[in-house]
Amino acid sequence: MRKIIHVDMDAFYASVEQRDDPSLRGRPVVVAWRGQRSVVCAASYEARRYGVRSAMPAMRAERLCPDAVFVAPDFTRYRAVSRQVREILLRHTDLVEPLSLDEAYLDVTEPKTDLPSATAIARRVREQIREETQLTASAGVAPSKFLAKIASDWRKPDGLFVIRPHEVEAFLEPLPVSRIHGVGKVMDARLAALGLRTVGELRRCDVGELEARFGRYGRRLSELAHGIDRGEVRPDRPTQSISAEDTFATDQPLSTTEPMIRELAAKVWAATRKTERIGRTVVLKLKTKEFRILTRSRTPPLPPRSAAELTDLALELRGHVDAPSSTLYRLVGVGLANFVGADDMPQSQLFGDIERDRT
Q1: pTM to 2 decimals?
Q2: At what residues does the UniProt record annotate the site feature described as Substrate discrimination (predicted)?
């Protein structure tokens, strides 16, 4: 039986800004460059009360929260704090898998310290983060990565939640199926059409029927509904790709996919701001009505330096899809791949997005 902790910094970028500038404390802070082409990197909890969220267009955030204080991102500073947090995590186990600058998994089945339990380790980690960084983190403790990640969100911000092995089925039973990783709005609606609204109802559904309807993901759904997640904590796994995809409610021609591509590109760009690596290759994925998968990719001389540039490249790739115009598509995805370390990129390529996104 494994003991997994998921540690998630609370509103990380915005909290760093509020820590370093006392005048921002208690105020709605949006970390983003202002302008039509910018997206939100992070929002303080004060801003989230107005509906502001990461990956949202900055212009929309400004409309939702006119009193918000916009702060330009400082990723050099955020990476420095992230390294400080990483050092704290590594005191307790060598099995630390960073997911981004602000969250990580720890496998403490065999810890480096003599603390008596995974819960005690999670409590100590949070104390050390608070004392040494003046920031707060939430943590979830569970027998698997899937459950630990749900648990860390249970008492945010600045909370700790534990799911013990004998509590797994009772904990999952009433949860909406949307809490399962990979269940977005479209999949949620498809499960609702089958009368499956809770994880407990999904658990009682025949796995063969789920596979017949959803392929391999149907079996994965059944396993997660039973609390089964065999994923291991893999330390120092570098980012290879970041992507986002969604299924249309009804099959669409290529000409109407632009709004979805723009939305997905914004999500991907926001996700890349949480990693220290740089994606060089833009990927567009399409799945036809007949489930045929088409991909187009391009590695430009310079990597995308803004959400708008990523969007433009993804839309350009759409123009290279040579399927008949009558083809209908059920899914579209946007991704960045071919990641390299920031240290391998010239400074002009790393920071060329600042002035672009400020306009």
Answers
A1: 0.71
A2: 13
